[in-house]
Amino acid sequence: MADSKEPMKSKSRGRRVKDAAKGVLYGMAAHGHVTAALRTRMYLEHLFMFITLGDMLGVPVIPPYYSLKILPYAVPNIKSWKQRVFRERDFTDQVF
Amino acid sequence: MVDFLNTPFLWVVATLALYVVAYWGYGKWIDRNVWRSDAKRATPAHMYMDGVEYFPTSRYVLWGYQFKSVAALGPILGPFIGVTFGWLPALLWIIGGNFFIGWLQDYGSMMLSVRKEGRSFGPITYEFTGPRGRTNLLAFVLFYLIILSAAFIALIATFWDSKAFKGTTFVPTIGILFAGLLCGQLLYRWKVNVFVVTGIGLALIVFSLYLGPLLPVVLPWGQWNLAVWAAICVVILYVAAILPTPTFIQPTNYLAFFPAVAAVILILVGALATPFTGVTVQLPAGPFLSDPQGLLGPLWPILFVAIACGAISGWHSLVSSSSSSKQLDIETDALPVGGGAMLSEGMLALASLIAYMVLAPTFVFGVPGDPNNPAHGNTASWPVGAALLVSKILGVDAANIYLTAFFGLVLIVYALTVQALVTRFFRLVAAETWSEGRFRLLGNKHVSTIVGLGIPWGFAVTGSWWALWLYFGGANQLLAGLAIMLITIHLARVRAPTRYSLIPGIFMVVTTLAALMWQTSTFLYSVLLYTQGDKSWVLRNVRGGIQADPNYILVAVFINAVFVVIGAALFLVGLSMAIRLFRSYRSSVVEARAPVAADGGTPQK
Q1: pLDDT (tens digit, 9 = 90+) per residue, B356-390?
Q2: Each residue of B49-104: pLDDT tens digit?
Q3: Rounded CA gap, B485 and B480, in Å?
Q4: Where are the domains positioned within chain A?
Q5: Nearest CA in chain A to B141
Q6: Which of A8, B146, B201, B343 could serve as B255's disulfide partner, Cβ 3.0–4.6 Å?
Q7: CB-CB contact of B37 with B331 (8 Å)
Q8: Do B64 and A84 touch (CB under 8 A)?
Q9: Is the pTM above the cut of 0.95?
């Protein structure tokens, strides 16, 4: 991680080797699965946002009464949702 | 002590030393002088951080991820065909390919994507060559995925059917798949600790390996066994592509990782220990300018497409620009992640080559005309060679059934796990291509998966595996050439030195187009010979079951004709893409050479 750069310098050599080995093992065995799980969550969140805000976008999915009730939970995610939905995507993005 | 010079030890050490020079010498130089990577420049992972697709990740994690994503059957099976021309040319291509082209492509693809805000090759191709170029790429990738699937399905079926394993690998394969399903449930549904789940999964794999020799599965249909094995493989892949990834593909790939990595480490240690274990090189060094068995053709261009992923691979460029580039913490990490992972894959190719080198020539090459040991038919050589290398270290017999079953299982899971992801990728590409319009049925999840597996199954059970492999290698290497050209266009546009990527790019494009043309011509020549009454060429390109029955001669001709069409389509789509890229490169060079306006605005025309 980016924020782990500086502390890395102060770590002992042994600790750095251990962290590197752990990182490699995690990367080989689980990183792809973790990102795939995150992506699945992302699509579910898109669905949630769409259901909640659909009425305001002209696609009435649930009645506005319920939309307004869950709106406070959706508001904090609007920015990242907008960022992801508007991002250019291509078939070559889906290799892994 | 055996003759030291006659063991693979020195070759292993020399190759590893050259990889070190490739990374710390040439690699660092290119990184500093061509790409001028800058640790202070913001990467897409920081610019667009969303915690899902874009987030900074440690270089060690990314290296492990990149290596696992690119390592598959290519570096293992490629050298099997490569040694036909002698092990020396095969080794030289593995070294030269890695040194001058392979790492440069993986690293360059990653850097290109990083400099283009984390975009993958589709949008970059669109930017450089326009909408037709991007459609061209899409068509090429669809063809490529079908041929890749056909080659992998054919090989998985061949491994299950191989006499070398005596049916011992099927039960362990099913064991891994079952363990994957169970571990997926344990992890995601019952929230069991990941270490406990890993322990249970590994115990199940060991148990299934133990069961393999006790419950051998040998089919009774002779020459047609292969079609049944391929059908079983297709059913497994269909389930893998349809089910949600956390249910099946993810946990299975996770468990398969452990035996796969253990096997590579064991082989490399075995190769380094050969001066003490007494295992010597048996195969001829070559070079043979043409396949001595008269099947594959000339050393150039065939060797360069036969050994694909171990020297350079187009698949890597898709992986590098798809997800790794979005998670690169700092630009200077691209060299260890992209370049480092490729050179590590080169080590896997080296280990595989050594495993073939220590076997008897008749075992590896087969005997032309012998139905029990046909030319290029013993694809199970790798596990036997690997077992020979490590048996003395482990203190067991080289013919130990559990040892060969273990390496056989590794060979199968390398193919099966990557093929599951490829099938899924095909489904997603099909959904993207045919989501609307007249052919929207093809975008349906089930229909696209059935098409994406049905056509490859047809090829796998009819065409010879080496013909499929060479088409796959040709398409894969051509994709690599096209990726290098994209890199070169970018470098030209930013006025960076281009010759270090342009020369490899031209070499790869010309070589792979020549290989595709050679293959297509071979099939066409076979059909033409048939019209003149000579059946032998038509028959040598098809499977044993079709060869043996004279009633199927027209089927054999049809298969040859289909291969002509496939080869011609790959060649034409690839050529069209290459022309677009070379044109784009030329205009980029002209634009870059034009004098820049004093205010830094539009250059003078």
Answers
A1: 998 888 888 887 777 777 777 787 888 889 999 89
A2: 888 888 999 999 999 889 888 887 888 888 998 999 999 999 999 999 999 999 99
A3: 9
A4: 12-86
A5: A92
A6: B201
A7: yes
A8: no
A9: no
